[in-house]
Structure formats: C-alpha cells, structure tokens
Amino acid sequence: MGVHGDRAALLQPLLGGDRRALARALTLVESREAGFRELLRGIAPHLGRAHRVGVTGAPGVGKSSLVAVLVTKARAKGMTVAVLAVDPTSPFTGGALLGDRVRMTDHVGDDGVFVRSMASRGALGGLSTATGDALDVLDAGGFDLILTETVGAGQVDVEIAHESETTLVLFAPGAGDAIQAMKRGLMEVADLWVVNKADDASAEKVRGDLVGSLSLHDPPDDLEERVLLTSAKDGTGVDGLLGMLCARRAALESSGAREDLARGRIRRRLAAAACDLVAERLLGASADSLIDAVLTGDRSVHDAVEDILRMDDGDTT
Question: Any idea which fold 47-255 has?
Fold first, then answer.
C-alpha cells in the first residue's frame, strides 16, 4: 500500500475510536508527513463534538495538577477527555521536553482519557504551529472534552484563545501580583478566571484583587461567577469549574456563538496556512527569479507574493 493509501487507512479506525490510530494520526499531522492533508480532509466532516478548552497561566500556578483533577471529575460524569499539553521543545531532540510519561498517571489504562504532549518548537503564543490540526484530529476521535494546556510563557501565551471555545486563565497565591498580570495580555483572552491553590490562606485575597481589577475593564454581568477558586490538592471548586464549562458549552450552542467561534478560528488558520504555503514555496528554485525581480525593481514584494500564491506545486521544484 502506498503512502497515501496507508494514511487513508487511518481514517476509519480513528473515527471509530481506535487510540493507536489516533496516536499515529497525531504524529502524522505534527510532523507534516506526506498524506497529512488527505487525512485532515477526511476528518473535516466529522468535527464539532468536542468542547475545546484552553488552560493557560504563568508557570507555577498548577495548570497540570488542576487539569489532572478536572479530568478525574469529568470521567466521573462519564465524559471522555483528551489532553493536549504543549511543552517546551527539547534542545537535543526537538521533541516535547516533559512528555506524556510524567502526566496523568492516575488515568493509565483508561480508554476514556487520552494524553498527548506536543513540542512548542519555539512557536509564539505558547502553541505549536500544528496544534490546530492536532485538535481537529482529537475532535474526530470522538472526545467530549479537549483540554489544551500551554507552556505558560507569559505575555505571548494568549494564542490559545484562538484555538479554544473556552479559555481558562489560572492564577495562584505567590505566583505574582494579580494586578500586574493584567499587563501581560492574559486577562483579555479569558472566559473564566481561576485562582488555583484555594487551600492557601491568601487565595481569597487574590480572587478579590482579580474581581476588583476586572471590574474596571468593561466586566461581564456574571463576573463574580466567572472568577473561581479551586484547589488541585483537595479538589475544592473543581466540580463547580466543570459545571461552568458544561454550562458554557450549552450556552454557546443555544446562542449560535459556537459557530461564530469556529468561523473565527478557521479564518485565522487559513491565514496561517497561507503564510506556511508562501514560506514553503519560497524554498523552491522558481522563487529565485521572483527575488531577482524584486531586487531589480521589476516586481514589488506584494506582486511577488501574489505570484507565489498562483504557482502550481510543481513550479517550486
């Protein structure tokens, strides 16, 4: 069987919930191997089941710990869950620095939970450039909830909102002044603000600071409800957080906002894919003549970009 036939053979097992096929499909889209576009085309009609939730926040706020408890609570309610953890890139292998093995050990052997680490590969925004495609693959795998945890890179860690239907921004006592966090760009992308480590005596004060700060910036009517206290240590507030996620999914569906979010997500991904295509074609031999034309003033940069987009794939070889 040829390469493309082999990739096509992944489609039905993936759609049927085969976890081995899911893992292979994720590797395919992350590595951009031959046939990944055909696979993505095949799953396109099967997307939309999963609620895509992004989890971000500064290092040390307990993102991984809270995600693990949230998964446990979701499984207790019969939900299937996938976790995509975008980790720093190893300087030696180029792979995810943390990896799957140190995460979610309580769920080993549970077919209702799937955990995958992806290397950020230096991507801005805390996400790998292939994250959107990976989320589509997980969605096609039939999960009810997909949690994307970012590297926690600070100001640039806001790109997660573009790939999520609901974004959680985590804070914790001792992890920095909540007021200063307003300046990092994280606050604007949040749908829910979560103060983790509620077992700490100062957690309530951090929550109060957040509510006070958010109140100054065109706050939603239900602001108080959307700033939550949780504890990954003893589970405090995690049931409430899961309930908020389920309620938001229902509200997005009933209002039509979920389709609007999908349209915005696709628009951004089309722009990113176009940039990737231009960059790829610039590596081809035909691009040299365009570069020469710009250097000599025969074409502008913008003219050259339009020429590149009109190229057939064979023109770049």
Answer: Rossmann fold (3.40.50)
The pTM of the full predicted model, rounded to 2 decimals, is 0.86
User: Where along the chain do the CATH 3.40.50.300 domains lie?
Assistant: 47-255
User: How far apart (Å, rounded) are the C-alpha atoms in residues 135 and 164?
Assistant: 9
CA-to-CA separations, 5 to 9, 10, 153, 231, in angstroms, rounded: 6, 9, 39, 48
Residues 136-163 pLDDT 10s = 999 999 999 999 998 765 544 677 888 9
- The neighbouring-strand residues paired with 183 are none
Q: What is the DSSP string of the chain?
A: --HHHHHHHHHHHHHTT-HHHHHHHHHHHHHT-TTHHHHHHHHGGG---SEEEEEEE-TTS-HHHHHHHHHHHHHHTT--EEEEEEEPBPTTTSSBSS-GGGS-GGGTT-TTEEEEEEE-TT-GGGS-TTHHHHHHHHHHTT-SEEEEE----STTTTGGGGG-SEEEEEE-TTS--HHHHGGGT-GGG-SEEEE--TTSTTHHHHHHHHHHHHTTS---TTHHHHEEE--TTT-TTHHHHHHHHHHHHHHHHHHTHHHHHHHHHHHHHHHHHHHHHHHHHTTSTTHHHHHHHHHTTSS-HHHHHHHHHH--GGGG-
- Rounded to whole angstroms, the Cα distance separating 166 from 53 reads 5
Looking from the CA of 278 toward its CB, the CA atoms found within 13 Å total 16
Pairwise CA distance, residues 114 & 56, whole Å: 19
Among 69-73, 271-275, 291-295, the least confident range? 271-275
Of the candidates 192, 196, 202, the one whose C-alpha atom is nearest the C-alpha of residue 222 is 192
Give the CB-side neighbour count of residue 252, counting CA atoms within 13 A. Answer: 21
